[in-house]
Every structure is written in structure tokens, then in C-alpha cells.
Design goal:
GO terms for molecular function: transferase activity. This is METTL5 family protein. InterPro entries: rRNA_MeTrfase/Polyamine_Synth, SAM-dependent_MTases_sf, Small_mtfrase_dom. The structure is a single chain. With about 200 residues, the chain is an alpha/beta fold. It has a single domain, classed as Rossmann fold, CATH 3.40.50. The chain contains six helices and seven strands. It has helices spanning about 5-10, 30-40, 60-65, 80-90, 135-145, 160-165; strands at about 50-55, 70-75, 100-105, 115-120, 145-155, 170-185, 195-205. It has a seven-stranded mixed beta sheet with strand order 3-2-1-4-5-7-6.
Length: about 200
């Protein structure tokens, strides 16, 4: 599936009905999800099982399934988000040879055995007070689980990500900037929409 078609399919998905600020529940924009998943497909990384850590309403997990991943697991601690992800999966009419499973659990301590998987993840950016460096725990879980990963981080994170990955014996092979659009959804938001500067990294562990 080409990137444009993938983005249009992902635009049909529902976001969080009642987002929780403490979880930093911001939906992954379809254009970023499509770009990330399309790159993973081009790199051959969807030939192995895919795990979406902190899968939310399923944008990355379902994008991977649409792009040809035969086996996808979404790990999410919010039961309401998983319910929406299941509804989104039903709406998409996924390929018959794809299997998507939703697991309720802590993505920083995923209830999965380490294996040769590709991890995709839009972890919390750690923007909320008391939740600083939240993406570090997601990277640590990814390092223990994955062969290859794709993760989204705040702009300016490259130094930290490369240092963290090098300490784990890995390598950042691809990085690109992405404009992350966030619609107003919490009381403290003052704009109807704000665009965040983010970076996406492909990492070989």
C-alpha cells in the first residue's frame, strides 16, 4: 500500500473519546503514522511481528497491519482506548491474513517475551510536570524487546536518543523531523490547534 493511501485509511480512525492528561494521550497524526509505517515496510521491518507499545486507539498498530504486517500486538493500559482501537480495527476491514491483538498492560513493562520483533511507538513526550523523561522508560522497554524500532520524540531529543541507544549497543539508522498537530482537547490548551516539532527515529538494537 502506498503512503498516500495508507494516510487516507488512517484518517478514518477515531481518536480518544475522553483523553487522560496524565497519560499524555494525544493521537498520532495520520500523516506521521503513514510515513513511519511506510518506511518500516520499505526497510522490510514489517516482515517480523510488530509490537505497538502504548498503542492508544491503534493508529500505528493498524497502520502496520494495513501495510502488510501479518502479526501485530498493541499494548495499552487504558481499557477505553483499547475499546476504541477494536472499533477502529473493525471499521478498517483489515486484510484477511493480518492478525491484530490488543493486550492491556503497562507498555514500559510489556507482558511479552523478548523476541525478534519490530516495535512502533508514540511514547509520552514527558511534557507534563511530574512526567519528565517519560519516553526513556519506553525506550528501555523497547531495547529489551525489539530487533528494530520506530519511535516519535520531541524535537531536540536526538542527542539523548543516540546516547541511550549507544549505551545499549544499538544504532540510530534513520531520523526525520515531523510536524505533529495537536487539536485542543484539555482545559489548559489555549489554541484550537498547535503544531509540535517532533523527530522520528529508526533504531537497530
Amino acid at each position: 500500500m502506498d503512503r498516500g493511501t495508507l494516510e487516507r485509511r488512517l484518517q478514518r480512525l477515531d481518536g480518544f473519546a475522553d483523553p487522560r492528561v496524565e497519560f499524555e494521550q494525544y493521537p498520532t497524526p495520520p500523516d506521521i503514522a503513514a510515513h513511519l509505517v511506510h518506511l518500516a515496510a520499505l526497510q522490510g521491518d514489517l516482515a517480523r511481528p510488530v509490537v505497538d507499545l502504548g498503542s492508544g486507539t491503534g493508529v500505528l498498530a493498524l497502520g502496520a497491519a494495513l501495510a502488510g504486517a501479518p502479526s501485530v500486538v498493541g499494548v495499552e493500559r487504558d481499557a477505553d482506548a483499547i475499546a476504541t482501537a477494536r472499533e477502529n480495527a473493525a471499521r478498517l476491514e483489515l486484510p484477511a491474513d493480518s492478525a491484530v491483538t490488543w493486550v492491556r498492560g503497562d507498555a514500559t513493562r510489556p507482558p511479552l517475551c523478548p523476541s525478534a520483533v519490530t516495535v512502533v511507538s508514540n511514547p509520552p513526550f514527558g511534557a507534563q510536570r511530574g512526567n519528565e523523561h517519560a519516553d526513556r522508560a519506553f525506550l528501555a522497554a523497547t531495547a529489551d524487546l525489539a530487533t528494530v524500532s520506530y519511535t516519535i520524540h520531541n524535537a531536540g531529543s536526538r542527542g539523548f536518543v543516540e546516547s541511550f541507544v549507544a549505551d545499549r549497543g544499538g544504532e540510530v539508522t534513520h531520523a526525520f523531523a515531523a510536524a505533529f498537530d495537536v487539536d485542543r482537547q484539555f482545559a489548559f490548551h489555549t489554541d484550537d490547534r498547535r503544531t509540535l516539532d517532533t523527530e522520528v527515529f529508526r533504531i537497530e538494537w
